[in-house]
Amino acid sequence: MTAETSQTLDRGLRVLKLLADTDHGLTVTELSLRLGVNRTVVYRLLATLEQHALIRRDLGGRARVGLGVLGLGRQVHPLVREAAMPALRSLAEDIGATAHLTLVDGADALAVAVVEPTWTDYHVAYRAGFRHPLDRGAAGKAILAARQHPMAVPGYTLTHGELEAGACGAAAPLLGVTGVEGSVGVVMLADVVPERVGERVVEAAREVAEALR
């Protein structure tokens, strides 16, 4: 800690991060041990966070992330979209196909940023806000592949005609970005996706991930 930082705020943020990393919540004792502070301090931190609905406590006394974080989360998409746009523009112009950034939204894949190429005679129309099940389309399947093999070398996923007849998709997952689960991809009208497209999509996903770190 430095003179310019707040120890109490730092501890409160650490509590939120610890709770976000568990599905079953944590007790006061568990938080006390992980933070290296006494239980009284933890009680005060939880009481403050609970007042702002950032945490909640179940009947067993375990603390969990509260619904108040959703209000903060609504501001995430615009920030992520802004950071991703340069890499998406470059990808769309280079490949000549519609590029997109897709994030997980519950059980769906949600397109939060889309860039169409400027020089092609025709391309697939794809709009921000479009959603589809995670197990359909390259964007969602790339995310699921990263979940199943988190330590694997980054690769790309190809699909054909799963979301739109005659359209192919290629997507690569975003890796190494805390709190963001998504993919970068392109969709094009083609029978076969050229090999260089998949490699270029992986490169673009890496660029977006770096911009978000």
TrEMBL record:
Keyword Transcription: yes
A Pfam family this chain is assigned to: HTH_IclR
Record-linked SUPFAM superfamilies: GAF domain-like, Winged helix' DNA-binding domain
SMART domains associated with the record: HTH_ICLR
GO-annotated molecular function: DNA binding; DNA-binding transcription factor activity
Domain of life: Bacteria
Residues of the HTH iclR-type domain: 6-67
Matching InterPro entries: ArsR-like_HTH, GAF-like_dom_sf, HTH_MetabolicPath_Reg, Tscrpt_reg_IclR_C, Tscrpt_reg_IclR_N, WH-like_DNA-bd_sf, WH_DNA-bd_sf
Protein name: Helix-turn-helix domain-containing protein
